[in-house]
Design a protein that fits this description.
15 helices
Length: 394
């Protein structure tokens, strides 16, 4: 949870600016009071919807709820012309592209692991090469991103300096991880179980990076209406750009961490266990691909959903496993021979099962897609209703 907070405090400002001021056009707002009440309605509606959905176990997006709330309250306050439709179009496009990108990246990493480690004759020797390299790639990319986003208020280095920082961090991490993985792998059997043990460190690193990226994006989305309300109250005007006070970022960081502590286990079981079977290598691919996708989105200022990207990565891993099971040379030989054979992963299924085997639960896929689709219109409608009530009371 502290990593969530670090992500929000260090790298969350750009997304806050997009949500609080980019979705609706400040020039169309009649006065600051109207804007403040609209943002209040958006915040209340998003909070109600996300807490209700999370309580019943639906993996909805905080990002989608906030964006839908801001849009619905804005429409109720000043009409459809208030909404910045080009920005909304870019946000909606990112919602479609980002889960697909997360799935593709996760599938590519899993393909790399299968080709370079799992189906090699000497798995341990390959792990000693690739595991330190994968951790070093994560460290270098993270150092580059952190230098750009986290230090920009006090230091703005040029591109050569940023690249040098990333390379130095890559080399340093690789130098530390190489002997560590070698010592850890001493005496291990040449089995997939050993690879899973060696992937514990990469999994921890990728999960930490994803947690930071989640804080940079989703925490910022949650407190965006609050930042807009504060600015409107303090300055009596609606500006196109706002400064985000540190205490607001801290409120958001604490709130999302508390929510993770209270509601997280239920959704973790849903995403981590019930969609497709996970092991440390697959979980590493999911966490790393989701972190990379969210970091890129935060860099561009797009309020994408970490939840959607992570789920998209899980589906990407599961669908790739289905494809690889059907089309790999090893599996085709089993089918051609007309009988099961034991493999490194255990007993192979019957040939006819290989052709029909589903490694992703389709019912969960449909349920999750339905929850995604309903969040924005439901939150927008709720925010519009809350604004009407608040406007009548003021």
């Amino acid at each position: 949870m502290p990593i969530h907070s670090a992500g929000a405090l260090i790298a969350g400002g750009d997304v806050v600016a997009t949500v609080s001021k980019g979705i609706i056009d400040p020039a169309q707002v009649a006065d600051s009071a109207t804007f403040v009440w609209a943002m209040t309605a958006a915040l209340v509606a998003a909070a109600l919807w996300v807490n209700l959905a999370t309580f019943v176990g639906a993996p909805v997006s905080t990002t989608h709820a906030v964006v839908g709330g801001v849009m619905g309250a804005g429409i109720a306050a000043a009409g459809f012309q208030l909404v910045n439709w080009p920005t909304m179009g870019a946000i909606a496009a990112s919602w479609v592209i980002s889960p697909l990108l997360g799935g593709v990246i996760a599938a590519l990493f899993l393909a790399l692991i299968k080709i370079k480690l799992i189906y090699q004759d000497d798995k341990i020797a390959q792990a000693r090469i690739w595991v330190p390299l994968l951790v070093a790639i994560m460290a270098g990319a993270f150092a580059y991103y952190l230098s750009v986003k986290g230090l920009k208020r006090i230091w703005q280095p040029g591109q050569p300096t940023l690249l040098a920082i990333g390379v130095v961090c890559f080399v340093a991490t690789w130098s530390v991880m190489r002997p560590l993985i070698r010592r850890q792998s001493e005496g291990m059997e040449n089995r997939n179980r050993s690879l899973r043990e060696l992937f514990r460190i990469p999994l921890i690193c990728s999960a930490a990076l994803l947690s930071f990226a989640h804080g940079a994006n989703d925490v910022a989305n949650a407190i965006a209406p609050l930042a807009a309300i504060l600015h409107g109250v303090e300055h009596g005007a609606v500006a196109g750009k706002v400064e985000i006070p540190l205490w607001i970022m801290m409120i958001g960081a604490f709130g999302i961490s508390l929510g993770l502590f209270l509601y997280g286990p239920k959704l973790i079981r849903m995403v981590g266990d019930q969609i497709t079977k996970m092991n440390p290598m697959r979980a590493y691919c999911v966490a790393l691909s989701a972190a990379i996708t969210v970091i890129i989105a935060s860099w561009l200022g797009l309020p994408v959903s970490s939840t959607h990207i992570a789920v998209g990565a899980v589906f990407g891993v599961g669908f790739f496993r289905e494809y690889y099971t059907r089309h790999s040379k090893k599996r085709r030989r089993i089918v051609a021979q007309g009988g099961p054979r034991r493999t490194a992963e255990g007993s192979a299924p019957a040939p006819e099962d290989l052709r029909r085997r589903k490694l992703v639960r389709r019912n969960h896929f449909l349920t999750i897609i339905a929850a995604w689709l309903i969040t924005v219109p439901a939150t927008a409608s709720l925010a519009g209703a809350v604004y009407v009530v608040l406007d009548a009371l003021r």
